[in-house]
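Weekly structure sync - notes
Attendees: PM, LS, DV (DV joined late)
Agenda: review two folding runs queued last week.

Item 1: First target. Sequence and structure tokens pasted below for the record.
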Amino acid sequence: MKVGILAGGLGTRLAEETEYKPKPMVEIGGMPILWHIMRYYHAHGFKDFSIALGYKADYVKRWFAEQARYAHDLTVDFATGEVHPHGSANLPDWQVHLVDTAFETATGGRIKRLAPYIGDEGTFMVTWGDGVSDVDLHKLIAFHKSHGKLATLTAVRPPARFGHLQMEGDQIVEFDEKPQIGEGWINGAFFVLEPGVFDYIEGDDIMFEREPLSNLAKDGQLMAYRHHDFWQCMDTVRDKKRLEDLWADGAPWKAWSE
């Protein structure tokens, strides 16, 4: 099954980092968060990726090209200028399509532009290039196939930004530093989709989170897979710091061994 990842956003709330690189290339533990997402999918057996590029697309292309070229040992012939890779490189067996979907294209338009790469063989997966989770992808797919609808999104309840106090008068009777939001599920991405979803996306300026998902819901074609455990996006410097701390402690999304 093929995986599409949207990696074309500006990441304005991470401006210190994204002035020079797109948000999915901001590093956690020395590697782009996009790499973490791909490693997670690969740990579940998925290795055919199509990456929708936009802002600073060349940065992403160069990074992947350099990973493939320079992970090997090299012999450099100064007389001819030739560079010869040799030996084995510790690289995952990925097939990666880097697709420039244009700077101004919205999320729905980016997904539709990936159709030639991900939508020809039935069910496929899509996620955003700025969020990690420990969602069981095989259970997610099984849920999607069980209901027979066009689209499944992973519904999550992220940790609250601030601690929760329950008080009786002036006395605190319950304190929870980082509670899970008690009500209201949100879209955590990690979609499983059928090719019929492309018919809900009219053009480049369509945000997938608006008309397409709204219309899929109205037509009874959108289902939610409830994920109760770890999920975290990287929208802000605060989010990045939390992910860095989690990575240092073992990372809930690290489903692979080095």
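Item 2: Second target, run right after the first with the same settings.
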Amino acid sequence: MSAQLQPLAAPLLETARRLIGALQQEPSVEMRLALAKRVVRQLGDEAYPVFLKILLIVAESEDSAAKQLVADLLAAAARRMDLPSGPLSAWGGSSGEGAGMNAHTRRRLLGPIEYLTVWHCQQTQRPMLEEALYADAVRKLLALFDLNPELRELYAGKLGSDAGGELEGTYTRDTRDILSRMAQRWRKPQSTPDEVVRAALRGDAPDTPVPPGWIVHRL
């Protein structure tokens, strides 16, 4: 993520460790889902990117059990159409002038990949996410999600469905195009996260180096 987030590395790592430890001690999927959703609520609407960073910490780690636990938990959430989500204010669709402030007040809850894509493609309350950071984050999340085949199938299907609808002006044409290409490639057997990201961006992922210091070897 951005350089401004670098000081948060140690607290986020500790938060990720505690969350994984708590999830591992919960006996049921229902309790694990409730715990994950409580973490998102406690972070608050404007801090959903912190939850995304926690997911990335897990994805970057070498803790196979932790990664599988999170992928399986998200699969259960996707099965219930209840993925942990965060809101973004979209500056309206492809209609251009007149979409402005009225569209800005529309807030829709978005799952991890949709949130990152809107953040990258559209004007929101946040500065737009650079392509290199977007590609790196999505690639790592896809690798995490691929650990559960059901999650991959359900999530790819959701992205394709979202991209095919207007969703009350939530997505611009560029956003829908990226989500549609991502869904199509992700559905193909044996497709890798790198291939999915390249297809989504219509070319190779950017070579711009990602800020160092975010690789976690053990949670």
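Discussion on item 2: The two ends are 19 Å apart (CA to CA).
Action: LS to circulate a short write-up before next sync.
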